[in-house]
Specification:
The chain has 10 helices and no strands. The protein is mainly alpha-helical.
Length: about 290
């Protein structure tokens, strides 16, 4: 093991290549998480509601991230090992199910390629070490949260809260910031959007965002400290406003159409990961 660590430290190209390949494999698993986690949470919610009402709970087939095995939702064709190779299988199958020839969403290879690109860039940016390995976990989680929020307008606590606690844990050792800044960042991240939420609701009578957004920003604050939050909020808001206006003008979205804010927060978090110091120095030159 020490020899492998030394090799990865001395051969950055090898580390970047292996990280990119790892990203492809993780991306394939993230597709499962994106598709199944909301369904698992919905099933748990239905069970809890039935239990509170005192109703008899009918046993349903066990459903988890690992069971049942992946299958085509149209024809039920069981996905074989060779059909589940990241990106390559999609190309071999020409983007169609091997059983019924139904088109497979382009999202699947897109998520895999995004995970691979993020892992490779993180390996290049940080080099082998704790910062790179934990940063990959951060980026992979944001990628899953992005697509879950796009699909369901939800940011599950099962991902946001562990992400926040992990950020606090790794900063005990000062990997990305000092622990005091991380703790303040977690509190300030949550409270900042909580205040905005209630001000908007008092003025308009409507909800402008969900509680998951508060927790996601709290997680970003826990990873990079309170100093990063103004830049993350500003960048997320600007990108969200530009894309929102574009959808209204070109895609004919209504002004009342709800659009998830999580993907823009995730983008701000990735920007903080790669350009954190530059972002802080932009508005805190003396820091």
């Amino acid at each position: 093991m020490p020899e492998i660590i030394t090799l990865l430290q001395q051969q950055p190209v090898l580390f970047i290549t292996l990280s990119a390949l790892l990203g492809l494999l993780v991306g394939s698993f993230l597709n499962v998480v994106i598709h199944r986690l909301p369904k698992i949470l919905e099933q748990e919610w239905l069970y809890n509601c039935a239990d509170l009402r005192g109703e008899e709970i009918t046993e349903a087939p066990k459903y988890s991230l690992f069971f049942p095995p992946s299958a085509c939702p149209v024809c039920g064709h069981r996905i074989r090992a060779w059909e589940n190779i990241p990106v390559i299988s999609y190309l071999i199958l020409r983007g169609k199910c091997a059983g019924c020839k139904t088109a497979i969403s382009l999202r699947y290879p897109l998520v895999e390629l995004c995970a691979s690109a993020l892992a490779g860039l993180i390996a290049w940016h940080f080099g082998f070490g704790a910062a790179a390995l934990t940063a990959m976990l951060f980026a992979f989680t944001l990628l899953a949260l992005t697509f879950i929020d796009i699909d369901t307008h939800l940011l599950p606590d099962d991902l946001t809260l562990p992400l926040m606690w992990l950020g606090l844990a790794i900063n005990i050792g000062g990997v990305f910031t000092d622990l005091q800044s991380a703790v303040i960042g977690a509190m300030a991240g949550y409270l900042a959007l909580w205040v905005i939420y209630w001000l908007y609701k008092l003025v308009t009578g409507e909800e402008g965002m969900g509680y998951g957004d508060f927790k996601l920003l709290a997680a970003i604050g826990a990873w990079f400290g309170w100093q990063m939050l103004p830049a993350v909020i500003l960048l997320s808001s600007l990108v969200g406003a530009v894309i929102g206006l574009g959808l209204i003008v070109f895609a004919k979205y209504g002004r009342k159409t709800q659009m998830p804010f999580g993907p823009y927060l995730a983008l701000g978090g990735i920007a903080a990961l790669f350009f954190g110091q530059q972002m802080i120095h932009f508005y805190l030159p003396a820091s």
